[in-house]
Amino acid sequence: MASDNQSAFTKLTPEKKTRMAKELSESQAPSVEIHPPLVYLLVFGLGVLFQLAISFRIFSEFRLGHLAGWPVILSGAALVLWAEKTMSRNGVVPSFKPVPTIVTTGPFAFSRNPMYLGMTLMYVGLGLVLNTFWPLLFLPAVLLILHYGVIFPEEVYLQNMFDEEYRQYCTRVRRWL
Asked: Which of 6, 47, 82, 162 satisfies CB 3.0 to 4.6 Å to 166 for a cystine?
């Protein structure tokens, strides 16, 4: 059951929610200490170092990686940009600050984490373009770090902040796809 303050908060106009969210203290923001792009970059870099030490190619021909990888990279980048634009239109800044509302339109209508999905696509696509299997082998580690270090704290924050509204959103939209 939502508290009276949480129920009242979900009924406010977007402008009032934005103003209230800006006034919230940092302690009321999600407790996320990991920056997802950095996780992807560091783990991918580790995969490249492994590739330099022990070559593990995906394709016999280098150009096949480009044919397979670039569409995946571009799809991921488009998804990230679409998600950022959708968040911005709803008064939400992609950061770990208090948010005024749950974004449920655009790519958020089919994934609760379209930005992480897009970054994952770019990660996979870059592995294909560079024709290296190591980063792809390390991808489960990236996803575990994101799940427990970023997504789970964000979900706890959103559940506490928006209660029933967020619970209903979770029943309609899957975490990834």
From this structure: 162
